[in-house]
Amino acid sequence: MTFHLSTPSRVHRRQLVLGSAAVAASLAWPRMGRAQPKAWAIGSTLDLSDGERLLGEGLSNGVRACVAAVNKAGGVHGIPLQYEVLDDGFKPEPALANAQKLLANPALMALLTPLGTQQAKALIDAPLDTAVIGPLTGTAALRQKLVPHVFWMRATYQQEMDRLIDHAAKLGLNRIGLVHSLDPFGKGMQASFEASLARHKLQPAVLGTTPTTSSMEVGPAAETIAKAAPQALVVGLGGPAAAFIQALQKRGGSPMLLGLSITANAGTVKALGTEIEKLIFTSVVPMSSKVGLARAHRADMEAAKLGEPTLATMEGYLSARMFVDALRRAGPGATREAVRQALANNGRAVNLEGVSVNFDRVQQGSNYVDVVLFNRAGKLMI
After folding, report:
1. In terms of Cα–Cα distance, which of 335, 352, 330, 322 is closest to 25?
2. First CA to last CA across the chain, in angstroms?
């Protein structure tokens, strides 16, 4: 899949949301002749209780904003959407159990935005008959082969890392370090970091580690980084990022801080306060008001009273909009397989209000990566 930002259409976005419904309604009813559901169901398994809960809440709020807007406009094929979220505590076994529980509902058409590398892997490895849209992980190792039921909606961590290291190198910084976790997610992060440095013929200035992705045991890593005093540091952490940065500052560490998209979560922004303006982050979704989908995202978040739009809410919103588009094209008698085939779309691009989404033959992630900043008030500078 690739993102291309195109010129925003003059057609009102509600017309875009509803315009294809009439065409879809004319499509043939499937042979199985099952009755239409009372609601099209979608579901997510997310962390709502552990270290990545704010990220999970952001993703689910983005989906909810889309669902509310679509239902207000009459649903899809005249049928409303229903969204259910289950808490997996950021653990793969509960994530798979949650997915199986959600799939027990015959009206469920897709699973959206599983959060975390190991949780996503559990769903990728399972023999599911339902599309999994937008796993929130950029681990490239999960995308080395085609998995027919998985549709990636974000760039890889390698692409994000390349963008950050390129930025640092352009500033003349050559002593660059990384803090990451000692688990599959973190090891993938280290591999991406070293590959990005190699493009500039550089070696890691220092590596600091935490035990796991969600571990708050950040002191030893902060001590290691502070002693090495790199010019720049990539923060390859999610939920624990703010605690690590604060621990580093207490030890006198002051490198330029570069964060991946997972680092730019609501918890980091809130915990760092005015210090957030000193960090540079990558974003894998377009947030500029020049993009129609970003404007729709903001308007639908406001209408649903779901708080300030964030990078996480935009990821959830984008995945939900992609599902809605596929459901329309699948027709009024849509099945799980019909939705999956509509997503694949034979390699043809779909325009979502200025964002062109095109799943390629291996359904790999987007190439869209940008650099974003926050102001002292914690607002994205867009």
Report:
1. 330
2. 24
